[in-house]
Each structure stands twice: as C-alpha cells, then as structure tokens.
C-alpha cells in the first residue's frame, strides 16, 4: 500500500506535457479568503502568485534585485478552486542585456478521492535586473555586465 501511494504521488508530481527544461519553482494552496463572489479563486491572487513564481529563475540569473517590467501574456485556462494544490513550473525563454523572459505554467492537483491534474493558467512575463537606484543594470555575464 505504501509503495502504491508513493507511485501515485510520483505520477502526479510532473505533468507529462511540460517541456524538460521547465522547473518546479513554487507550490501553494489557495484559501477561502482568496475567492471571488462566484466561489472561484480571484484572478488577481493567481496573477500575484505567478509574478512571485516567475521571478525565481530571473533572480538567480540576475544575482540581485529585479523588477517585473511586463506581463506579456496571461491566460486563465480553467478556474481554480479552494483546496487545489497549485504547482508553478517556470522556463526561461529569453535572456537579453538587462531583461529575462519566462514562461510560467500553473497546474492544479485536485479531488483527493480521485486525483486529477489540470493546467489552469499560463503566462509570459519579463523581469529586468535593476541597481540600487532602480535603474536597469546589465546581467552578469552579458557584454557590459
Ligand atoms: C523596470 C524598469 C526599471 C525598466 O526601466 P526602462 O527605462 O523602462 O528600461 P528599458 O527601456 O531600458 O528596458 C529594459 C529592458 O526591459 C525590456 N522591456 C521593456 N519593456 C518591455 C516589455 N513591455 N516587454 C518585454 N520586455 C520589455 C527591454 O527590452 C530591455 O531589455 P534588454 O536590456 O534585455 O534588451 C522601469 O520600467 C520600472 O521601474 N518599472 C516599474 C517596475 C515595477 O514597479 N514593477 C512592479 C513591481 S516589481
């Protein structure tokens, strides 16, 4: 039984449709306080979580302070419900002189009685490395960084 449970857990750990270079950067479960009037999770809460998750890989590359400069695309594919366990997978899609773009996919694990995994959101965001005055700075390893 323990062996079987472990196998189920591993099967749900990573959606097979994800590209190999997508990294699990964050997991979180929304609470009732995060829901809207329909009882679904508020889109603004999901956007905030995606912004946090999207910043993980750019922070590592920038080795310091970054700011979100753009949410280039954001798609709510399926509603999120209280009790969903959300996994955020990120992949760097572009590294420029001062900026880094990432693609974030959010997958919800739900219905513990008969576990399911559903892609609920995907987004493209761009972050800029900034200096202590908030101005763009060249990334480490770039021509001027
Ligand atoms: C981020 C910020 C410092 C950038 O300053 P800026 O003078 O606009 O910077 P630049 O025009 O030189 O662009 C910097 C980089 O961002 C990229 N960029 C700017 N706008 C972009 C957009 N809409 N989409 C994608 N990339 C964009 C540029 O291409 C450039 O990348 P590169 O150096 O790799 O080629 C400034 O816009 C800012 O402070 N914005 C507010 C940030 C913020 O408060 N975010 C929310 C909280 S973190």
Question: How would you characterize this protein structure?
Answer:
There is one protein chain. The chain is built from 3 helices and 5 strands. Helices cover 21% and strands 37% of the residues. The protein has a single domain, classed as Roll (Thiol Ester Dehydrase, Chain A). By secondary structure, the protein is of the alpha+beta class. 25% of the residues are buried. A hairpin with a 5-residue loop joins strand 4 and strand 5 (116-129). The protein has a 5-stranded antiparallel beta sheet with strand order 1-3-4-5-2, with helices on one face. Bound molecules: coenzyme A. The site of coenzyme A (COA) has 14 residues, from strand 2 and strand 5.
Summarize the structure.
This protein is α+β, with helices and mostly antiparallel strands and 145 residues long.
Here the CATH topology equals Thiol Ester Dehydrase, Chain A
Question: Helix fraction?
Answer: 10-25%
- Sheet with most strands: strand arrangement: 1-3-4-5-2
CATH homology superfamily name: Hotdog Thioesterase
The hetero molecules present are: coenzyme A
Order of helices and strands: HEHHEEEE
* Classification by helices and strands: alpha+beta
The shape is globular
Mean pLDDT level: 92
Give the CA-CA distance, first to last residue: 54 Å
Tally of helical runs: 3
């Amino acid at each position: 039984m323990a062996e079987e449970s472990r196998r189920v857990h591993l099967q749900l750990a990573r959606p097979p449709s994800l590209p190999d270079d997508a990294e699990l950067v964050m997991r979180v479960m929304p609470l009732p306080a995060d829901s809207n009037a329909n009882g679904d999770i508020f889109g603004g809460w999901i956007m905030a979580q995606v912004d946090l998750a999207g910043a993980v890989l750019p922070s590592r590359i920038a080795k310091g302070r970054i700011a979100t400069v753009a949410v280039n695309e954001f798609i709510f594919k399926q509603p999120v419900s209280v009790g969903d366990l959300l996994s955020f997978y990120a992949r760097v899609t572009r590294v420029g002189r001062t900026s880094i773009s990432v693609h974030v996919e959010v997958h919800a694990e739900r219905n513990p009685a008969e576990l399911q995994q559903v892609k609920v959101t995907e987004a493209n965001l761009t972050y800029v490395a900034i200096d202590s005055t908030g101005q763009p700075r060249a990334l480490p390893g770039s021509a001027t960084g």
